[in-house]
Amino acid sequence: MTELLQKNIADHVVLSTTETEEFCNLFEQRFIKKKSFLLREGEVCKFEGFVVKGLFRVYHIDKNGFEQILYFAIENWWITDIDSFTTETPSQLYIEALEDSEVLLISKKDKEFAYSNLPRIEKLFRVMTQKTHVALQRRMIDNLSKTAELRYIEFSEKYPQLFQRLSNIQIAAYLGITNVFLSNIRKKIASKK
Fold first, then answer.
1. Where is the Cyclic nucleotide-binding domain (predicted)?
2. What is the per-residue pLDDT for 106?
3. pLDDT tens across 143-165, in order?
């Protein structure tokens, strides 16, 4: 159950076998059925999660009813509403399983326990937070400076394992365009080949 989590931790920081086991024991295993929610808007996010199996989308619905996908999470990715989790305020996000999924969840209390008793865990989350900030900054710059067509091409090249598992509607919502516009982009790309 925790082998993938242990590998993920080892990719970021060096922990002893005992520290790794103690940290992994703080997680609760959950199975989430396709189309079920791990979090809904208005709920307080009480977890940080690690995806062992499956696919999730993290999204917001704007005042006009349009879905805005912040990110997708597949195996070996972390998932949460960091704002709600940190501030213990109602979430503005939905976290929905797009496939039958398995996640490992850690509560805020257990995470704080890990910070106090396993000092290198704080470094783990600092390193992951920095990587998340870098990815978010790059995505913001891309959305401001690149065409939808270029963003689509780069998304398909950067995340081929994810790209194959998503519908056109989901990809369009992630790119911030309509499904019709995405279809036009795909036709344009196909005609160039």
1. 30-110
2. 98
3. 899 999 999 999 999 988 888 89
Q: In what order do the strands lie in the sheet with 55-61?
A: 37-39, 94-97, 55-61, 67-74
State the DSSP string of 97-143. Answer: ESSSEEEEEE-HHHHHHHHHH-HHHHHHHHHHHHHHHHHHHHHHHHH
Phi/psi of residue 136, nearest 5 degrees: -65, -45
Strand, coil or helix: 87: helix
pLDDT the model gives residue 148? 92
Contact 58, 99 (CB under 8 A): no
Closest CA to 27 of 91, 71, 80, 74: 80
pLDDT digits (tens, 9 = 90+) for 79-99: 999 999 999 999 999 999 999
- The CATH topology of domain 3-108 is Jelly Rolls (2.60.120)
Tokens found for residue 42: 């208005």
Q: Each residue of 1-57: pLDDT tens digit?
A: 689 999 999 999 999 999 999 999 999 999 999 999 999 999 999 999 999 999 999
